[in-house]
């Protein structure tokens, strides 16, 4: 897909004196998985929230399908947040019904197909799910929509190695020619096998970005090694 799904130019977000993003630039096309990498507070989640239309930028421009984030783009963005948005008293089937009411592109059959991978059933109550099962449910819900921009905020946090493998496999399976997937994480070693591009963000600034295969080949090291160099101040 040659036409970008998303472009951001000099995107800036300030919270008072805190600079969450500063002159951030990115172009994202379909059939790509883009890793937004950096420590907590680096600006990764702020970018996702602006993309999802939940937060307004201070300045700069961001366009999704040629439109600024808003009512016309929200239907084409699926956002898996780290914040708790699943009602504890609901059963999984109730959460599915809620998503079906909220999002016309929600695919119930697809959701039912994916649930067993995370040992989930429609009758389970959210309050009874383990941390890993909740994370799995949020991921399944995000990918059960037809959205062309999927935003996954720290999907590998707080889950064991087996669940991480399941999450990474789902990301591989769900890439499409007309879809871009953004994944934020500081667990870089796990992500290297699925991301096509990486953007290292430090205090709101994209300090290094590009093709993962080119970065690792050029430096003769892993993405995790590059991460260490970036945040130890060895790469400018």
In quaternary terms, these chains amount to single chain
Uncertain ranges: none
Q: Structural class given helices, strands, pairing? A: alpha/beta
The end-to-end span amounts to 31 Å
The number of distinct β-strands equals 9
How would you spell out the order of helices and strands? EEEHEHEHHHEHEHEEHH
CATH architecture: 3-Layer(aba) Sandwich
Strand order of the largest sheet: 5-6-7-3-8-9
Brief digest:
By secondary structure, the protein is an alpha/beta fold. It has nine helices and nine strands. The strands form two sheets. A six-stranded mixed sheet has the order 5-6-7-3-8-9, with helices on both faces. Strands 2-1-4 form a three-stranded antiparallel sheet, covered by helices on one side.
Report on this structure.
- By secondary structure, the protein is α/β, with parallel strands linked by helices.
- It has a single domain, classed as 3-Layer(aba) Sandwich (Rossmann fold), CATH 3.40.50.300.
- Helix content is 33%, strand content 26%.
- The protein contains 9 helices and 9 strands.
- It is globular.
């Amino acid at each position: 897909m040659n036409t970008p799904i998303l472009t951001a130019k000099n995107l800036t977000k300030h919270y008072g004196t805190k600079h969450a993003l500063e002159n951030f630039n990115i172009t994202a096309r379909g059939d790509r998985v883009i890793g937004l990498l950096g420590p907590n507070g680096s600006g990764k989640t702020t970018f996702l929230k602006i993309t999802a239309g939940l937060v307004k930028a201070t300045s700069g421009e961001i366009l999704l399908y040629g439109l600024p984030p808003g009512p016309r783009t929200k239907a084409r963005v699926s956002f898996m947040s780290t914040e708790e948005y699943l009602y504890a008293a609901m059963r999984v089937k109730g959460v599915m019904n809620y998503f079906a009411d909220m999002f016309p592109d929600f695919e119930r059959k697809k959701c039912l197909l994916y649930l067993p991978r995370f040992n989930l059933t429609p009758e389970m109550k959210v309050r009874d799910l383990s941390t890993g099962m909740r994370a799995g449910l949020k991921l399944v819900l995000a990918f059960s929509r037809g959205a062309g921009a999927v935003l996954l905020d720290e999907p590998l946090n707080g889950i064991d190695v087996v669940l991480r493998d399941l999450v990474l496999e789902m990301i591989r399976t769900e890439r499409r020619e007309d879809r871009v997937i953004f994944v934020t994480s500081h667990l870089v070693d796990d992500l290297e096998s699925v991301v096509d591009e990486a953007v290292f963000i430090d205090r709101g600034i994209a300090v290094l970005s590009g093709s993962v295969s080119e970065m690792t080949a050029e430096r003769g090291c892993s993405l995790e090694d590059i991460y260490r160099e970036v945040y130890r101040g060895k790469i400018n």
